[in-house]
């Protein structure tokens, strides 16, 4: 008897992978501690950075007040403004750091999904190499994607009618960046280099685009990013496994 052939995932399967991943996670409470790690780490880093930043800006403004005799109302306005900027910057930095620092938990989710789909046991890279590899992949994606987004935005600004073309193109770039980032985890478990990853994107472009578009559109919902991260990793694993063996 011939072995069943693996799927050739389509755009529709890329879309559905996100919702199947959500179902997989919701139905397994034992995985929830892994899924919450990015949110917890982001919160801890945010509180630490914001606390240091607020204390530092407050001390700086107090020195200005004592030195120049600035009015109390102006001092408080300046303090509140600097506090808000500090909190915003702290959140951006905390969110950026939370993903690579959560690599061990996200790798575990990817491994559990693959095991559920009948894949072999895989061992991911150790903690610090995993962080370095994740940052490298993310920076590579941004190095390519951000200039494209800036170029498309500039084209729309200089010639507004081009927005009919540039808006879908920008959404496509964002979708591919999201897919590139989230597929890093199943790719890393397979020790896939950049060339192999690019070949995967080319060979299975429809599924990658459907997966990325769904993720990118969900990311438009405020505050959902870190909660969507574990779901995206599981969904990406489903797509990769489906190119190797049939998946339910």
Protein described:
The protein has ten helices and no strands. The chain has 248 residues and is an all-alpha fold. It has one domain (11-242). It is globular.
TL;DR?
By secondary structure, the protein is an all-alpha fold. It is built from 10 helices and no strands.
List keywords for this structure.
248 residues; 79% helix; globular
Terminal-residue CA separation:
20 Å
Give the helix tally.
10
Number of domains: 1
**Cα shape:** globular
Question: Which residues sit in consecutive blocks of at least 5 with pLDDT less than 50?
Answer: none
Structural class: mainly alpha
**What is the residue-mean pLDDT, rounded to a whole number?**
83
Classify the helix fraction into a percent range.
over 70%
Major beta-sheet overview: none
Residues in β-strands, percent: under 5%
- SSE pattern, N- to C-terminal: HHHHHHHHHH
Query: Would you count the extended β strands for me?
Result: 0
Rg from C-alpha positions?
A: 22 Å
List the helices and strands and how they pair.
Blueprint: H1 11-26, H2 32-68, H3 72-101, H4 103-116, H5 127-158, H6 163-182, H7 184-189, H8 194-203, H9 205-218, H10 225-242
Helix pairs in contact: 1-9, 1-10, 2-3, 2-4, 2-10, 4-10, 5-6, 6-9, 9-10
């Amino acid at each position: 008897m011939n072995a069943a052939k693996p799927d050739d995932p389509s755009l529709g399967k890329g879309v559905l992978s996100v919702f199947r991943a959500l179902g997989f996670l919701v139905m397994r409470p034992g995985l929830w501690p892994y899924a919450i790690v990015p949110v917890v780490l982001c919160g801890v880093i945010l509180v630490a950075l914001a606390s240091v930043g607020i204390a530092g800006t407050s001390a700086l403004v107090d020195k200005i007040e004592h030195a120049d005799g600035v009015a109390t109302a102006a001092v408080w306005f300046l303090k509140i403004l600097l506090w808000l900027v500090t909190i915003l910057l702290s959140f951006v930095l905390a969110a950026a750091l939370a993903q690579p620092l959560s690599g061990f938990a996200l790798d575990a989710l990817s491994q559990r999904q693959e095991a559920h789909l009948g894949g072999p046991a895989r061992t991911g890279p150790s903690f610090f190499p995993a962080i370095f590899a994740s940052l490298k992949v993310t920076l590579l994606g941004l190095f390519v994607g951000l200039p494209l987004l800036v170029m498309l935005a500039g084209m729309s600004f200089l010639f507004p009618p081009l927005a009919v073309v540039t808006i879908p193109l920008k959404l496509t770039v964002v979708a591919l960046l999201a897919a590139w980032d989230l597929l890093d985890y199943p790719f890393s478990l397979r020790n896939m280099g950049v060339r192999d990853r690019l070949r995967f994107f080319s060979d299975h472009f429809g599924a990658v685009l459907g997966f990325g578009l769904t993720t990118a559109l969900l990311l438009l919902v405020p505050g959902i990013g870190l909660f969507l991260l574990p779901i995206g990793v599981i969904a990406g694993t489903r797509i990769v496994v489906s190119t190797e063996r049939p998946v339910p």
